[in-house]
C-alpha cells in the first residue's frame, strides 16, 4: 500500500473501535476505494504520488471517514456483546449449580447470607440475559429500519457492567462467608478448579466485550460526520450480516 493511503487508513483504524474482523473488512473496502480513485487520477495524467494524495484529500478528514463507518461497526459490536451477555451470564449461573449435584465436602448446607446472595446473583444474571435478548431484537429492528443502534449498544454495555459487578461482588462475598468450610473444599477440588477456570475465561471475554461496546457507543455519540461519506464508506444493505464479527 502506498504511503499516503497507508497513513490515512491507519488513522481511520485508530479511530474505529469495534470487532476486529468487521473493521478489517471496512478498512479493506476503504483502501480499495482510495486506490481506485488514485488510479483514475493517474489515467487522467496526474503523477502517481500526487494522485494518491489527491484521492486521500478528496476522501476528507480521517475523522469523517471513521464517523461514516462508526454506526455500522457500533451496531455490530453491540449485537456481539448482547449475545455474550444473553448466553454467558445465565450459562455461568447454571454452570455453578453443577458442583452442588456432585457429592463432596462443598455440599454443606449454606448459611442464610450465602443463600440470599445466591438468589441475588441468579436474579441479576437472568435479568441481564433477558434484557440482552430484548436488545438484540431491538437492534435487528433498528437495522431493518436503517436506524443507528448507538443507544442500544450503550444500553447493552451499561446493563452488562451492572450485572457483572453485582455478580462478581456477591460471588466474592459468598466465598468469604464460606471461607472456613465449603468454599475452601470447593476451591481445591477438581470440579472447583474446572468451573473456576471456565468462569475466569468467560468473564474476561465478557468484560472485554462490554468495554468495547461502551467505547464504541461513546465514540459514536460524540462524533458525527460533517460531510458526505467518503468513497467506499456508504453502507450497503446486508453488509453487516456478511462481515460478521
From TrEMBL:
Compositional bias per record (Low complexity), positions renumbered to this chain: 223-234
Protein name: Putative membrane protein
Transmembrane segments: 82-102, 122-143, 155-177, 189-207
Superkingdom in the source lineage: Bacteria
Native source organism of the sequence: Actinopolymorpha rutila
Keywords: Membrane, Transmembrane, Transmembrane helix
Residue ranges of the region described as Disordered: 223-245
